């Protein structure tokens, strides 16, 4: 029989159940969100989640090319997920990979239920997602950022979409796995939800979990999504507060300057 070689397992939890980066099992990585970061896009957002760094840019609704793809009763949402060649440890080829094509589809499907596509028949709404630095969980961070970029573009949404994965590391259920945890853990469960509507728009699983573990991981991911949703809301509210105060400053200047 062939002698299989399994890589030596890294210990991902210490005796206090703390992870290699010091997080508790139910803790998200530090998250930084920004909206309106690109001048030439109709809407844009940037996310840092742990060491993952991702930009999302929205163009549209706009005329669709090639026209035969146009749908008579709604807009076509097209998300394109790409990783920069320098975003991962081993240089990624600039040619689109099968994984990027798959993730583009998965991300589009996770966002589509939140967009009022029927408002824009025959049009196209394009979302370009660029992973600048990858450290696990990039499909979920991409969904979180793309949903903010759609809101920033003023596209009518039923709800925001918030996403994060839970998984299993050293036999325990943990939230928001890093690349190291993903590669050395036993399972990964990316989840996206529309938090106010209570709908799940993405649910994937890689690895092995019992039914009980699956339920625990799903519930932990949903709690994580709800925390991310609060951060998304805050950053959007902040954007409108900033616009309002800029506008009133301008009005004051005009009044005072004559
Ligand atoms: N990754 C990599 N090279 C690649 C693709 C992925 O190093 O060509 C890493 C990257 O850090 C990514 C992680 O593997 O975040 C996990 O990839 P997966 O396909 O599970 O998707 P993700 O967890 O990012 O949604």
Overview of this protein structure:
The protein is of the alpha+beta class and 258 residues long. The chain has one domain: 2-Layer Sandwich (Ribosomal Protein S5, domain 2), CATH 3.30.230. It is built from four helices and ten strands. Helix 1 (98-111) crosses helix 2 (138-152) and helix 2 (138-152) runs parallel beside helix 4 (211-257). Mean pLDDT is 94; it is low at 1-6. Bound molecules: uridine-5'-diphosphate (UDP). Uridine-5'-diphosphate (UDP) binds next to helix 2 and helix 3. The site of uridine-5'-diphosphate has 12 residues, from helix 2 and helix 3.
* Major sheet details: 5 strands, mixed
Strands of the widest sheet, in order across it, are 1-2-3-5-4
By CATH reckoning, the class would read Alpha Beta
Report Rg.
20 Å
Structural class: alpha+beta
Total beta strand runs: 10
Topology (elements, then pairings):
Layout: E1 31-35, E2 43-49, E3 52-63, E4 76-83, H1 98-111, E5 123-133, H2 138-152, E6 162-169, E7 172-175, H3 179-184, E8 187-194, E9 199-203, E10 206-207, H4 211-257
Parallel strand pairs: 4-5
Antiparallel strand pairs: 1-2, 2-3, 3-5, 6-7, 6-8, 8-9, 8-10
Helix pairs in contact: 1-2, 2-4
The structure holds uridine-5'-diphosphate.
